[in-house]
Amino acid sequence: MRKTLLLVPLLALALTGAGGASAKAAKPTCRWQGGWQKLANRIRADVFCPSWVPDPLTGQIGGQWNNIDSVSKDRSYLIGFVWQEKAEEIHINLRGYPGVTRIPTCRNVELVGGKKRVTSIPCFADSRGQKTIGGFRVTVYTVNQDADQWHILYAWRHKGSLYTLSEHIAPPYTLPRIVQNMNRMMSSLVLVRPA
Predict the structure, then answer these.
(1) What does DSSP assign to residue 109?
(2) Which residue of 69, 105, 112, 126 lies most exposed, with the fewest beta carbons within 10 A?
(3) What pLDDT score was predicted for residue 6?
(4) What does the alpha-carbon distance between residue 39 and residue 35 come to, in Å, rounded to a whole number?
(5) Are 144 and 125 in contact (CB under 8 A)?
(6) Helix then strand then coil, % of the chain, to nearest 5
(7) What is the pTM (predicted TM-score) of this model?
(8) Which one, of 194, 193, 190, lies nearest residue 31 by Cα?
(9) d(CA 66, CA 91)
(10) Which has the closest alpha carbon to 59: 164, 178, 188?
(11) Cβ(93)–Cβ(68) under 8 Å?
(12) How much is the pLDDT for 97?
């Protein structure tokens, strides 16, 4: 948490950019449609396929960089992509919570007086406001849990469901570049409906 607090002034500067896509930009297409269509069919809900992700990643579910492909009994999903080399990492996550719009809760385990204390905390916290990117009204979160820890996270709602996109704050990218990446990914999302 201390590391995150030190990033707050830098994050405030980075997040003030407009982040919108040009009105003349071509409509994005999902190059990895097959895996995202299977996911939409599996959970019986809309999903968002990224048509652009930071190099060398791809948005291919089941591809070389796909390290997390998880669907829970409640149909919520977590799809993650990661590249690592030496002290560098590019890691993005996409999540969806069909039929749920509230922020989920995560388990927090603390050692208090030599004993474990387990509490529930919001999985996404420390809102840094909202902005519109690629037609999506996103809320920006900087203190996140579980697979999104040390990530900048954008959350938005679509047809009664919560969706998120996050990227890990880590080299080789600087914080302003990560925000640029996030904005570009949001602008490139393609809606995939269940068949």
Answers:
(1) E
(2) 112
(3) 39
(4) 6
(5) yes
(6) 20, 45, 35
(7) 0.86
(8) 190
(9) 10
(10) 188
(11) yes
(12) 98
The 10 Å Cβ neighbour count of residue 179 is 24
Three-state DSSP class for residue 153: strand
Q: Low-confidence residues of the chain, pLDDT below 50?
A: 1-23
For residue 13, the model assigns a pLDDT of 40
pLDDT score of 81? 98
Distances (CA, A) of 178 to 55, 60, 86, 92: 12, 20, 19, 10
Q: What are the residue ranges spanned by the domains of the chain? A: 2-13+32-192
Query: Would you state the pLDDT for residue 20?
Result: 43
Question: How far is Cα 193 from Cα 188, in angstroms, rounded to an integer?
Answer: 16
**Model pLDDT, residue 45:** 98
What confidence tens digit (pLDDT) does each residue in 23-32 have?
Answer: 456 788 999 9
Nearest to 101 by CA among 67, 132, 73, 137: 137
Residue 62 in tokens: 């089941």
What pLDDT, on a 0 to 100 scale, did the predictor assign at position 24? 55
Token pair, residue 7, equals: 């990033």
β-bridge mates for residue 167, sequence order: 92, 152
Measure Cα distances from 160 to 50, 141, 155, 163, 164 in Å.
Answer: 20, 20, 13, 10, 14
Lookup: tokens for 120? 């529930």
Residue with tokens 């190099």: 55
Spatial separation of the C-alpha atoms in residues 9 and 15, rounded to whole Å:
10
Q: What is the pLDDT of residue 22?
A: 43
Give dist(CA 170, CA 58) in Å, integer.
18
